[in-house]
Amino acid sequence: MKENINISGFADEISSDFTKQMETVTALGMHYISLRSADGKGIAEYTVDEVRENLMPRLAQYGVKVSSIGSPIGKVGVEDEEGFEKQLVDLERLCEIAKMLDCRYIRMFSFFIPEGKNADDYRDVVIEKLRRFDAIAEKHGIVLLHENEKDIYGDTAARCKIIFDALASPHFRAAFDFANFVQCGEDTEKCWELLRPYIEYIHIKDAVSDDKENVLCGTGEGKIKQLLTRAIRDEGYEGFLTLEPHLVLFDALQSLETEDAKNVIKENKAKDGAEGYTMQYNALKEILDAI
After folding, report:
1. What is the b/e burial string over 139-172, where b = at least 16 CB atoms within 10 angstroms of the residue's CB?
2. Phi/psi of residue 153, each to 5°?
3. Residue 177: which of 203, 158, 152, 139 has the closest Cα?
4. Are strands 37-38 and 41-42 parallel, antiparallel or unpaired?
5. Phi, psi of 200 (to 5 degrees)
6. Which residues have CB under 8 Å from 274's CB, separation 6+?
7. Residue 1: per-residue pLDDT
8. CA 95 to CA 87: how far, in whole Å?
9. C-alpha neighbours within 13 Å on the C-beta side of residue 255
10. Contact (CB, 8 A) for 140 and 73
11. How far apart are CA 231 and CA 223, in angstroms?
12. CA distances from 128 to 19, 118, 138, 167, 192 (A)
């Protein structure tokens, strides 16, 4: 495996207990996590002092660094002005937390579209709001990573490109999620080709389109092996590959997904979160060894 590729992961899929997260990732030989929730609390609910006092000592104890903050920024209704204003405040604090953790990246989204409404009609308001997020990130020297989540404005590659072209900012880049594109009926290879200039981070999550269920990476329709081979061998991708297995109904999932969690994970594919995370890690390692 190339030295400029690092495996990270959303460790809250292992357990809500932060120490258990640390024990599992280090047993696998991993040195990075994406920090989304810890001890049953989402990262956006933490104060700077709480991160310093409760999380940083354990990160240091286990020798683990943070590749990205898995924030819920932008996971609010596009018409929810009160929610947006609160997220502006939250993002300021998350930028402070990221800097304290020596972390460059904060994962975020581009607003839920009201059911039955046309996402394209919200282009201008989405761009305007994202520019305000981008300005905060620029002030702090942080890079926002837009994830192509289901049911938000930027759920398709075409609308993702509209966002990146409009913002044209080094502080607003793409986190490429294979499974989410599959679940939106998109061809991941075409998505990759369209968005490659903006991709700075990759989520390792796979899915099948017939029932939109998440599956072990490399076994779904995300074309993960094919596109990682292209990215690493041919295009010189450097950076993080972040495990997001979604193989077990982990504690935080219900609050992370817009649809019922059981529509995403119809049955556990491992006995617990730690085993599911390990399965995903080993499957990715197998792909990387082949590359």
Report:
1. ebebbbbbbbbbbbbbbbbebbbbbbebbebebb
2. -60, -50
3. 203
4. antiparallel
5. -125, -5
6. 14, 15, 20, 24
7. 44
8. 12
9. 13
10. no
11. 12
12. 40, 18, 15, 9, 25
Average of per-residue pLDDT across 253-259 = 54
Percent of the chain whose predicted confidence (pLDDT) is above 90:
87
Contacts of 220 (CB under 8 A, 6+ apart): 178, 179, 182, 206, 207, 208, 214
Looking only at the bridges linking them, the beta strands covering 37-38 and 32-35 are unpaired
Which amino acid is residue 123, in one-letter code? R
What pLDDT, in 10s, does the model give residues 229-245? 999 999 999 999 999 98
Tokens encoding 173 = 């880049």
Q: Give the C-alpha separation, 215 to 26, whole Å.
A: 24
Q: In the predicted model, what is the mean pLDDT of residues 206-212? A: 90
Confidence class for position 2, pLDDT limits 50, 70, 90: low
Six-digit token string for 236 = 């010189």
Residue with the two structure tokens 């992961």:
9
Residue 263 tokens read as 């529509």
- What's the pLDDT tens digit per position in 16-67? 999 999 999 999 999 999 999 999 999 999 999 999 999 999 999 999 999 9
Using alpha carbons only, give the angle 11, 15, 16 rounded to the nearest 5 degrees: 95
Residue 225 to residue 286: CA distance in whole angstroms: 10
Write the pLDDT tens digit of every residue in 132-163: 999 999 999 999 999 999 999 999 999 999 99
Note the helical H segments in the chain: 18-27, 48-50, 56-62, 81-100, 123-140, 157-167, 178-183, 188-195, 224-229, 253-256, 261-264, 273-290
Picking from 38, 148, 43, 147, the residue whose alpha carbon sits closest to that of residue 90 is 43
